[in-house]
Amino acid sequence: MLLIDSSGWIEFFTEGPLADEYARRLKDPSKIITPTIVLYEVYKKIKRERTEEDALTAVSLMKGTSVVALSESIALFAADLGIKHSLPMADAIVYATAMENNCKVVTGDSHFRGLDRVVFVS
């Protein structure tokens, strides 16, 4: 199982230079989990920089993965991970969601660099 971070989804949807690298990992949506905070971040960024229609299309595709809501256990685990690794809130939630679901985080976000179970795309 993989968790594609917001940076990866945005790279994919905006056809950035690393889009093909993320597309390769997105071939089987049944093996992808998506925290609700990632839906928020991707929707917000694409709506702000493109259109609401583009943002809704992106979210619709993301909903083909296993969407994981923020639970109490993930929230508390995220707080602990945020303290331990100096992670911003959203990144801590993403990382905690991945750890709780026993999967790797695929990202280009430098906040995750050096953490266990992170595949860094650059």
Keywords, separated by commas or semicolons:
alpha/beta; Rossmann fold; 6 helices; globular
Task: Please give a structural write-up.
The chain has 122 residues and is of the alpha/beta class. It contains six helices and five strands; from the N terminus they run βααβααβααββ. Helix 1 (6-13) runs parallel beside helix 3 (36-49), helix 3 packs antiparallel against helix 4 (52-62) and helix 5 (72-85) crosses helix 6. The longest helix has 14 residues, at 36-49. The radius of gyration is 13 Å and the shape is globular.
Strand residues, percent: 5-15%
SSE order: EHHEHHEHHEE
CATH class: Alpha Beta
pLDDT average, as an integer? Answer: 97
- Stated plainly, the CATH topology is called Rossmann fold
